[in-house]
Write a structure and sequence with these properties.
By secondary structure, the chain is mainly alpha-helical. Helix content is about 50%, strand content about 5%.
């Protein structure tokens, strides 16, 4: 059965008549619905509007809203090109969540966390305050964005740690830095901070914020390497997974070792590949006997092995680094000793 749409003249209809029509149509539709009849509208397709005739304007007169008072020569292709350039200037990266991989827009330098964003306490000397502010404003320092100074000294980093996406975006920036050149930069600042034109008096008085700054500068390379490790099972940053793991907060404690913070006795880190690889990074860095890892790695590794198995990680320090200068000095001393023995044998 086909029900053709009824045509109405443009005239007023008495309320009672209109109600009767609505009731008759409603009852007819109800009967058809119960019988399973399909209604087909056989009305002709509506005629497309002709912009030139119906609106009294031509296609050449059409322009974007923003350009109503601008240059008539502005074309839509320029708009598309501008949009494409804008899109290409904001690259996207893949940030993986614990259960999979989520795509997230990379954070710009203006939106990522920064170290010492809460300022400095009043007990810092004027000289040290000037040094620290100059360091934080240094373009090279800012491009490195040291993870080692963010972990303990950044309120914005603490806020980012509440989201695996935001933390992954932050690590995208810190891990994009050139670790070789940035290590040299941080080593230079670590040396200058001890000078009289830096923070020597503040370090002597054990100002905790400045001591933490010096430690973080020296720990840049091992903490860069550890924080940029990825979980091979999820492709997510190991640190991002650890810091956002609310079911086991101790997973992130291990990352504080290079900052001279020992692993708490009750810690029960998850025994996974991330923990194993992170400890391997710290073991290798313990070859620098002047670093914090030389004093707290073995204890932490022993504790990890007690939880994960006796051979889960290497519980000894790496072989110490011997500088070329020390090797040369040792060789010259050996040569001198041989010469003395030869002369003594002649005299005898």
């Amino acid at each position: 059965m086909v029900l053709s749409p009824a045509r109405r003249d443009h005239r007023l209809v008495e309320p009672s008549e209109d109600l009767d029509v609505q009731e008759s149509i409603g009852s007819a539709l109800e009967r058809l619905a119960k019988s399973g009849v399909l209604l087909v509208d056989q009305s002709p397709y509506p005629t497309p509007l002709d912009a030139a005739s119906d609106y009294g304007v031509s296609a050449n007169d059409l322009r974007r809203r923003d350009d109503l008072f601008g240059d008539d020569s502005t074309s839509s292709s320029a708009s598309v090109e501008s949009t494409a350039q804008s899109s290409s200037s904001s690259p996207t990266t893949t940030a993986s969540a614990a259960a999979g991989i989520a795509t997230a827009t990379s954070a710009s330098m203006s939106s990522v966390p920064t170290p010492f964003d809460s300022g400095f306490s009043s007990n810092i000397t004027a000289t040290c305050s000037s040094f620290m502010n100059d360091m934080l404003a240094n373009a090279t320092f800012k491009s490195c964005l040291p993870f080692s100074l963010l972990l303990q000294n950044s309120l914005s980093f603490f806020q980012a740690a509440k989201s695996i996406t935001k933390m992954s975006q932050t690590l995208d920036v810190t891990c994009a830095a050139n670790v070789t050149s940035c290590t040299k930069t941080m080593t230079s600042f670590a040396s200058n901070i001890t000078s009289t034109s830096g923070c020597s008096s503040d370090l002597t008085s054990k100002n905790p914020l400045i001591v933490s700054a010096q430690t973080g500068l020296l720990a840049y390379k091992p903490m860069y390497t550890a924080s940029c490790l990825r979980n091979p099972s999820t492709s997510a940053y190991c640190f991002a997974e650890a810091i956002t793991n609310s079911s086991n907060p101790s997973d992130s404690f291990i990352y504080h070792l290079p900052l001279n913070v020992t692993l708490p006795g009750g810690s029960m880190p998850t025994c996974n590949i991330c923990l194993q690889q992170t400890m391997a990074v710290f073991e290798a860095a313990s070859s620098d006997r002047t670093g914090a890892l030389a004093s707290d790695y073995v204890e932490a590794a022993t504790q990890v092995n007690a939880i994960c198995g006796p051979t889960f990680v290497n519980a000894s320090l790496a072989a110490p680094i011997i500088s070329s200068g020390a090797q040369s000095l040792s060789g010259s001393h050996t040569g001198m000793l041989v010469l003395v023995l030869v002369v003594a044998s002649w005299l005898l």
